[in-house]
Amino acid sequence: MAPFRTWAGIALAGALTVSLAGCSGSGGKRAEDARKAAAAQGRSAVNTPRWTFAMITHSGDGDSFWDIVQNGAKQAAVKDNIDFLYSHDDEAQQQAQLVDAAVDKKVDGIIVTLAKPDALKAALARAEKAGIPVITVNSGSVESKKFGALTHVGQDESVAGAAVGDELNRRGKKKVLCVLHEQGNVGHEQRCAGVRKTFDGDVQDLYVNGTNMPDVQSAIEARLQSDASLDAVVTLGAPYADTAAKAKQDAGSKAEIDTFDLNAKVAAGLASGTLGFAVDQQPYLQGYEAVDLLWLHKYNADVLGGGRPVLTGPQIVTKDDAATLEEYTKRGTR
């Protein structure tokens, strides 16, 4: 894993120091703004109006992944003087109603996931008609632009899946079980399809009810018991990796457990060798950048991406990265 303190970061810090030194003596406005930003320390670093941004996701209750997304969004909201509203529903029609409610509130910007895009199309058309800028995040990179969003922040799920297939090839795996925990989620389908595209071996899909962990464990265990040739299991969310590891143990299987997404348990599993690798899409960055990009658009009419998604992943992380990442997962930023 590349060091976090890069030469680019050192150069930027040096340039900022020079800029402050050069401007502060003359009392320049730029130096004053920079001093205010540096002194903010959790307070607003800007003097723009108190805009309201709403984030509406397809998260179910208790999904720790979305806690990390929110942590990033909330931090950016503090910096950008934003009143941040968060709501979620794993039922697509209910999620669409939450978008409609945000439009009715006349919020200044909307951040939304498109796990089931067709259900959100009409609601996003209402937002566009009302002149409310929209950024899609996490799910829906393909539909984002045609649904009127400024840009999409997240990872390309097909590319992420392909990266997993390549990593499985590198590890010499021959037969993998891809566990889909939410039927109808286009991103999940794209992940498994991406694995299938690059993996030289056999990929089998297993659909489970992700809201019932005992059933998830039983389903994975049953498949591992019935097919001893399975040498890898890929889960599509961090909370399911630990469940898959328990299923492996109870089944007496030697299959490697790998996963999409990262949390404290996954980092610990990588460190202990319980898990082989994880695909980090950096959810903190998704939340932070979505809020920051909306603020930039409101403030300066900026749009990043040039019509293409702003990618936050995939990044393959292994045991070698675990010690560094474990600290960040515990504080809720990775």
List key phrases describing it.
disordered N terminus, 12 strands, 334 residues, globular, six-stranded mixed sheet, alpha/beta, six-stranded parallel sheet, 13 helices
Report on this model:
The chain has a six-stranded parallel β-sheet with strand order 2-1-3-4-5-11, with helices on both faces. The chain has a six-stranded mixed β-sheet with strand order 7-6-8-9-10-12, sandwiched between helices. Helix content is 51%, strand content 16%. The radius of gyration is 21 Å and the shape is globular. The protein has helices at residues 7-24, 29-40, 64-79, 92-104, 117-129, 141-144, 157-170, 186-198, 213-226, 238-251, 264-272, 283-300, 319-330, and strands at residues 51-57, 82-88, 109-112, 134-137, 152-154, 175-180, 202-207, 232-235, 256-260, 278-280, 310-311, 315-317. Helix 8 (186-198) links the parallel strand 6 (175-180) and strand 7.
Structural class based on helices, strands and sheet pairing: alpha/beta
Query: Mind summarizing the main beta sheet?
Result: 6 strands, parallel
Query: How helical, in percent, are the residues?
Result: 40-55%
Radius of gyration in whole Å, from Cα?
21 Å
Spatial separation of the terminal alpha carbons? 14 Å
Low-confidence runs: 1-27, 32-40
Strand content: 15-25%
Element string (H = helix, E = strand): HHEHEHEHEHEHEHEHEHEHEHEEH
The global form is: globular
The spatial strand order of the largest sheet comes to: 2-1-3-4-5-11
Mean pLDDT: 89
Number of strands: 12
Number of distinct helices: 13
